[in-house]
Every structure is written in structure tokens, then in C-alpha cells.
Input
Amino acid sequence: MNENSIELFLNFIRFEKRLSSLTVKNYLSDLERLHKLITKPTINATTEDIRLSLAKLHASGLSGKSLSRILSAWRSYFMFLIKSNQIKNDPTSGIKAPKSAKKLPQTLSIDQIFKLIEIDDKTFYGLRDKAILEIFYSSGLRLAELSHVKINDIDLHDQTLKVLGKGNKYRILPIGSKAMEAINSWIDKLKEIKNIDEQEYLFVNSKGSKLTNRAIQYRLKYWAKKNNIPENIHPHLLRHSFASHVLQSSQDLRAVQELLGHSNISTTQIYTHLDYQHLAKIYDQSHPRSKKKMD
Output
């Protein structure tokens, strides 16, 4: 390793850039890593050296986030060498770090969903929370979308819901019969307590104020614990489950895209991977030629 160029760079970021000692230490570690990978002075690294080094690190299991950080450190070093007239060209120019594979969203099984939503509680909180859980799963809402639903957004006759989603775009969603029953029971309970205004938010606390996102998250966790659901229950988990279950039944990706309010179908396509996993499992269990040989 060209110790002089490395030391000059470290002094530059330490004293002129005033980076923390930990950051300087990380830069040094990343440059030492590069030297080990290319087995020659880092100052002489070529574009091909950088590409191969990133490929080796990627193959070793480093995440896209880690690779991006390492590449950024290398790029800063070579830019310093150019500005100090030690090299003419940046070998990291035009190179991008490999992206991390997208993690598949977690989902609940249909049985788990039914168990979670099974709330036999006719109190204010029980009826409200059952309606919340039912509409989450019935219509695949985002947390912010649900908390902003107003009573007049519900069309009781058509059993539909008008939702203001991302980008201030409205979409009309169907409401399942079970969710509709829960919503009607909740609205009836509200009418017992006070004269409700159609412009009011649908989900409120005992004081009549709009239910906060945090409060909704808390109530979901409450019912998950009470109904013995071991998974970490959160609003987006119900949305993921909704999307996965609808896609499994319909095989209609465009319809799921519309229901979720995704502007780009590529965002929705992650659920096809979930669906494929489901189909592959069924195939392995049922196809007579898929059975693995026994030792």
C-alpha cells in the first residue's frame, strides 16, 4: 500500500474535512481492504481492479448498503489523488455498487388473519378495533390512509371506500361483507354515544378525537397478543397479507396494483415472488414427480 498517499488522504479528511476519528478509521479500513483485494498500491488501481474488488466483496455476502459505503470511500480517496495531481483518472468513475436483493415482505396466513380479527367484544374499543382490523385486511390500506378515513368516505350502499393515497390521488376500494358488518356496528356504537357528523373521522378515541397512527399500531399489537398471534403485527403486515392473498386467488397483478394504489407495477411485482413461493410449496407437496429421493 502506498502509505504516503493514504496518510495524506487521512490527514486531509481528519484536519481539513474535520471528520470524526471513527469515520477516519472506517476510511482506512476500506482502503486497506482494497489493497488486499488488488495486491498492489491502491494509487495504481484500475477500473477493472475496482469492478473485480466489488464483485469479490459482493460474493462474500456484503450487502448493497455496505458495498455502496465502501465504494464511496474509495471514490473519495481517488478524487483526493486527482486534486493533488497524483493521478489523472478516477478508476471508480461510472461504477455502481451492486444492489441488495429486495427482501420479501412478511405475510400472515389466512388462518392467522382470521384468528387475529376474531374479536367478540361489543364495547366501544372492541367494536372500533374489530372494524379497524377488518378494513385493513379487506381493503389493503396504508396506516395513514386508514387513520384519515371519514364517515362520509364510506358508501354504505355500494360498500365502497374512497381513499386519499400517496400523491394526493383518490381511489375507490371495495369493502368486504365482514368488514362492512364491522363498520356498521362501529358506526351504530358511535351514534349511541353522540350525534355524529358525516365529516368526522371514522376512527376516534373515547374523547371523540381522531385516532393517531401510534394508537392504531398499539391496538393491533394488543389484539395480536390477546389472540395469541406470535408475529410482530403492524399495519403494513395486514396490507402485505391482503395483497398476497388476493394475488394467490386471482392471479391478477394489475388488479392488485390498483387496489394497493401503486403508481408503478414494479412495486407490486414483489408479491408475485410471494405467490411463486406459495405455488412452489404446493407443487413440491402434491406433484408425484417432485418428491425428493430418500436416502
In short: The first strand starts at residue 154 and ends at 155. The chain is about 60% helix and 5% strand. The longest helix spans residues 64-83.
